[in-house]
Task: inverse folding
């Protein structure tokens, strides 16, 4: 072979290898994303006991900050019985099986084939019966010259990692949902108790007003207005009791229980004053499981683009077979009768009306789309933290204002009724003071819950985990699905 021929072959092979190099649809905008150096709203909180701290790493095991043992037990129960989490665990198992399928291409496929046949033929007017048995062992293997099979494996590996991260994120969200439902139930119960107490007070006031009316000290209009207040408050009590039942059923569904509204909870919300460690913004993308999952899904689609690109190049496969054919079963295993064959084949697409190039372009566009989804999720993640921080500052200010308003309104309510009974003020003043007292008490309860919900949201937005609470493996939900049924 001449030197010119060798040079031509070498250049041709080099050009082919360059053409078969894996393309990528991911831009530097995603790979080199720059996080801010600090949270913009971290110093908004004025109360010393509620300040946020970004000078230390965000703390995991956040659930224990609520100091509620029953809540921790409920989250442990939900992690083993929640239906949606079990479905998420099955997604991980499915991704693992897909990975096993793609990894099987590292090995040759070996098949054993057996067939038997009996034929009838007519020879010179005579019936002739023949029997044939065939036994063969076939081996096939595709050479991964261009890295197409390894790219497919990489795609399935990344999908498997993403599924695991999705499962971990689902666990975090489930714990947050249980905690949120737990405090919503306590708020509903505390409001129900407030409405019941208020109804009793109004009934007592009505009795006093009726007694004064019989003595000629009050007008009939005052009785009608007071009766209206009592009826309205009793209706509000019934409505709130229904909300309590609905909150109980919502929590029971999260726990994987039948929604019988049998669960019990404290009737007073806790007040948590401990600081929340926000850590640094640069830590967020590595702490958020959902962001990590989106990144791996983006990388998986990018590996799929490489697979689609390499579908356009030659496929090289080897196959070998050995076997025998005999009229009797006993002769099939005769080593002297064995025949074998070895075959190598190369197939390459020549014309497909643009099908393969369209498949590659489709794969590229999927990468571009997923990258935009990833960038949107990243920006939303930072916005969630910033919104939770600024919202906490607003909630704290409102809470302290309404605590002061509640104390003043309760004093004003008591004073106005006493003055009304003495004939100093009209009943309309009593109604206004009662409305203000009721609004202030309701707002304090609701804001207490909103602060708890904000704490949960902030921990989740920061990528907080609860590792000491839940030590189940990724397949715990699957393993317990039968025993919990």
Result:
């Amino acid at each position: 072979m001449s030197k010119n021929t060798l040079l031509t072959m070498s250049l041709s092979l080099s050009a082919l290898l360059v053409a078969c190099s894996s393309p990528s649809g991911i831009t530097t905008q995603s790979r080199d994303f720059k996080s801010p150096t600090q949270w913009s709203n971290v110093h908004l909180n004025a109360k010393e006991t509620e300040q946020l701290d970004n000078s230390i790493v965000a703390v995991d095991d956040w659930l224990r900050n609520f100091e509620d043992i029953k809540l921790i037990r409920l989250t442990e129960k939900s992690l083993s019985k929640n239906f949606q989490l079990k479905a998420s665990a099955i997604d991980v198992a499915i991704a693992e099986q897909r990975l096993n399928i793609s990894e099987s291409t590292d090995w040759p496929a070996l098949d054993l084939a057996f067939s038997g046949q009996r034929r009838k033929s007519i020879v010179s007017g005579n019936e002739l019966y023949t029997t044939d048995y065939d036994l063969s062992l076939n081996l096939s293997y595709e050479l991964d010259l261009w890295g197409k099979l390894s790219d497919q494996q990489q795609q399935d590996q990344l999908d498997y990692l993403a599924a695991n991260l999705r499962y971990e994120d689902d666990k975090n969200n489930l714990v947050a949902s249980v905690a949120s439902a737990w405090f919503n139930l306590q708020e509903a119960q505390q409001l129900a108790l407030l409405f019941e107490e208020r109804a009793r007070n109004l009934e007592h006031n009505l009795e006093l007003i009726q007694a004064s009316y019989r003595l000629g000290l009050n007008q009939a209009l005052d009785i009608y207005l007071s009766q209206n207040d009592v009826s309205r408050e009793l209706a509000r009590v019934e409505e709130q009791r229904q909300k309590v039942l609905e909150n109980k059923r919502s929590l029971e569904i999260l726990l994987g229980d039948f929604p019988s509204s049998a669960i019990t909870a404290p009737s007073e919300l806790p007040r948590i004053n401990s600081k929340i460690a926000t850590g640094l913004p640069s830590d967020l993308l590595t702490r958020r499981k959902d962001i990590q999952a989106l990144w791996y899904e983006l990388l998986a689609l990018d590996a799929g683009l490489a697979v689609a690109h390499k579908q356009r190049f030659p496929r090289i496969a080897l196959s070998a077979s050995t076997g025998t054919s005999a009229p009797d079963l006993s002769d099939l295993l005769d080593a002297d009768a064995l025949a074998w064959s070895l075959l190598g084949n190369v197939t390459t697409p020549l014309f497909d009306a643009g099908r393969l190039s369209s498949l590659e372009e489709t794969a590229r566009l999927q990468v571009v789309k997923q990258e935009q989804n990833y960038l949107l999720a990243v920006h939303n993640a930072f916005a969630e933290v910033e919104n939770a921080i600024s919202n906490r500052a607003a909630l704290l200010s409102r809470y302290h204002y309404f605590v002061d308003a509640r104390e003043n309104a309760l004093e004003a309510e008591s004073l106005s009724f006493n003055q009304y009974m003495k004939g100093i003020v009209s009943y309309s003043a009593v109604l206004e003071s009662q409305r203000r007292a009721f609004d202030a008490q309701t707002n304090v309860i609701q804001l207490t819950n909103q602060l708890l919900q904000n704490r949960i949201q902030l921990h989740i937005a920061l990528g907080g985990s609860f590792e000491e609470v839940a030590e189940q493996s990724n397949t715990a939900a699957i393993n317990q699905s039968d025993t919990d049924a």
